């Protein structure tokens, strides 16, 4: 399956020439974007976000230049609650020369893969990286935000831009990447929150004892945050209020949290186990914090991770916020583990990951199957170009 293949290809990035393997991954991503196939518009409850993006793209041929640039100006001046403009920009320019939505998703894949691979270089460049089972597991965690997520392109592309910026800022001490981080709200408006988290982590990077206490508190009382946001929603800037209202809307929350079939409860159980497991990994970091802090590569990444997890746990009750931002912690956790623990500590804890994530594997396979036609698996690249262009 493509999701599994994406991780399998990546693990050989140090066994062979890095540039060659990275180029193969990039090409795989581009052709995945080209082959990404969805219906137009959400026609049922199980329709995916990509269907909405296709439908909106098909309407963009009617958007005039003046209307597009007026909308962009409104975004820059925070008028009318416009949250972001990445999708609008790609959809507008692609629609100028084609009505083929496959081209749009290919562009999405190119940008997504570029920042994903820039981040991956941090991981595979480490001396502890090898073609071992432990590294395969860590690699999967690091690349949890897979190419399928061009389906929800705005948030997940912003996620890779954000992760790459964080690795540069807190891992390499290159503070000029704050400028790149400032671009993340262009991809998705929720990343103003991520910028806030980063600023707090930067100025509070020597307050690990405080963040440690808040980490444990946040894990225990995460369900209070929904009412807290609702009660203080008017404190947010105008351009964030619309997003906050949609995330905390009562009917939206009930829809996301309503029970369903047995499969729903299986998913909920495994999601809970994954959350506990990832928090337990952070607990192990706290337990061995002296070792992590003594390493210049992970000293400030650890501080950032604590602040991020405090936010994630406190907002876990808010659909589309805590859970999504939690996935941004996975690459940081995987990198810190690789640098400090790999092959020396807690291997059994790491080996439990495939069992705990087993339902996630199943879901990912089903999602890839849903958006790829059989021709993708059996055709050569030239035929795919002919077929989808």
TrEMBL record:
It comes from the Bacteria. The keyword Oxidoreductase does not apply. The chain crosses the membrane at residues 20-38, 101-117, 129-148, 177-203, 210-229, 263-286, 298-318, 324-341, 348-369. Keywords: Membrane, Transmembrane, Transmembrane helix. InterPro entries: EpsG-like (IPR049458). This is EpsG family protein. It comes from Chryseobacterium shandongense.
């Amino acid at each position: 399956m493509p999701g599994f293949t994406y991780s399998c290809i990546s693990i050989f990035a140090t066994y062979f020439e890095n540039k060659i393997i990275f180029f193969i991954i990039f090409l795989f991503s581009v052709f995945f974007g080209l082959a990404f196939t969805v219906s137009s518009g959400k026609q049922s409850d199980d329709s995916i976000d990509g269907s909405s993006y296709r439908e909106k793209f098909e309407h963009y041929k009617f958007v005039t230049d003046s209307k597009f640039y007026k909308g962009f100006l409104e975004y820059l001046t925070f008028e009318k609650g416009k949250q972001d403009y990445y999708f609008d920009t790609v959809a507008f320019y692609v629609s100028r020369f084609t009505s083929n939505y496959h081209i749009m998703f290919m562009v999405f894949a190119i940008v997504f893969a570029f920042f994903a691979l820039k981040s991956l270089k941090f991981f595979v460049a480490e001396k502890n990286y090898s073609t071992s089972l432990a590294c395969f597991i860590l690699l999967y965690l690091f690349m949890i935000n897979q190419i399928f997520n061009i389906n929800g392109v705005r948030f997940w592309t912003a996620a890779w831009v954000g992760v790459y910026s964080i690795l540069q800022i807190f891992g390499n001490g290159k503070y000029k990447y704050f400028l790149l981080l400032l671009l993340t709200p262009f991809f998705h408006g929720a990343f103003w929150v991520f910028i806030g988290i980063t600023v707090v982590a930067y100025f509070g990077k020597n307050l690990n004892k405080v963040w440690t206490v808040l980490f444990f508190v946040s894990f225990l009382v995460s369900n209070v945050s929904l009412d807290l946001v609702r009660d203080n929603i008017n404190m947010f800037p105008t351009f964030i209020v619309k997003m906050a209202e949609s995330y905390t809307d009562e009917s939206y929350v009930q829809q996301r949290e309503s029970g369903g079939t047995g499969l729903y409860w299986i998913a909920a159980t495994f999601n809970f186990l994954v959350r506990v497991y990832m928090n337990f990994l952070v607990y192990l970091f706290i337990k061995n914090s002296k070792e992590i802090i003594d390493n210049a590569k992970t000293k400030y990444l650890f501080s950032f991770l604590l602040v991020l997890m405090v936010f994630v746990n406190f907002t876990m009750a808010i659909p589309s916020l805590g859970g999504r931002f939690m996935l941004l912690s996975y690459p940081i956790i995987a990198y810190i583990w690789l640098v400090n623990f790999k092959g020396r500590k807690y291997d059994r804890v790491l080996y439990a990951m495939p069992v705990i994530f087993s339902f996630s594997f199943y879901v990912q396979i089903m999602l890839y199957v849903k958006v790829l036609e059989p021709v993708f698996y059996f055709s050569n690249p030239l035929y795919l170009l002919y077929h989808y262009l």
